[in-house]
Design goal:
The chain is of the alpha/beta class and 123 residues long. The protein has five helices and five strands; from the N terminus they run βαβαβαβαβα. A five-stranded parallel β-sheet has the order 2-1-3-4-5, sandwiched between helices. Helix 2 runs parallel beside helix 3.
Length: 123
C-alpha cells in the first residue's frame, strides 16, 4: 500500500495528545499535519489537501463545525474525538472515539477511512 503519500489532518488543542497522535500516525507511514485550533485548521485547509482527518470537538476558539463541513465538502473522511460523550452524540453520522481511547482503536478507524477513500495499489 502506498501510504507514504497519504496525509492526515489532526485538529487537537491538547499538545500532549496531539504529539502522541502525531507519533503513532507517522509511525504507520502517514504524513501528519497538526492544528491546535479551528482558525489554524481552516487556514491549513485553504492550501492543503488531506486523505483523512481527526477532529477534537472541544477547541479553544469554538466548535469545529466549520472545519468538519469544509472537510466533508472535499470528501475527506472525518473521525471525531472528544472526552464528552454528548459532543460525540451530536455527530452520529461520523465515526467517533471517546477520550481516552486506545491507539489501536484509532488506527483501526483511520485505516478503514483511508481504505474507503483510496484503495491500496496493486502489488
Amino acid at each position: 500500500m502506498t501510504q507514504h503519500s497519504r496525509r492526515v489532518l489532526v485538529v487537537e488543542d491538547e499538545e500532549m495528545i496531539a504529539n502522541l497522535l502525531l507519533t503513532v500516525i507517522e509511525a504507520s507511514g502517514l504524513q501528519v499535519t497538526s492544528c491546535p485550533s479551528v482558525a489554524s485548521a481552516m487556514d491549513t485547509l485553504s492550501h492543503a489537501t488531506f486523505d483523512a482527518a481527526l477532529v477534537d470537538l472541544t477547541l479553544p476558539d469554538g466548535a469545529p463545525d466549520g472545519v468538519i463541513a469544509a472537510l466533508r465538502e472535499k470528501d475527506v473522511p472525518v473521525i471525531v474525538i472528544s472526552g464528552d460523550p454528548d459532543r460525540l452524540g451530536r455527530h452520529p453520522d461520523l465515526p467517533g472515539l471517546s477520550k481516552p481511547f486506545r491507539m489501536k482503536a484509532l488506527m483501526t478507524q483511520l485505516e478503514s477511512c483511508l481504505a474507503a477513500r483510496m484503495p491500496a495499489s496493486p502489488p
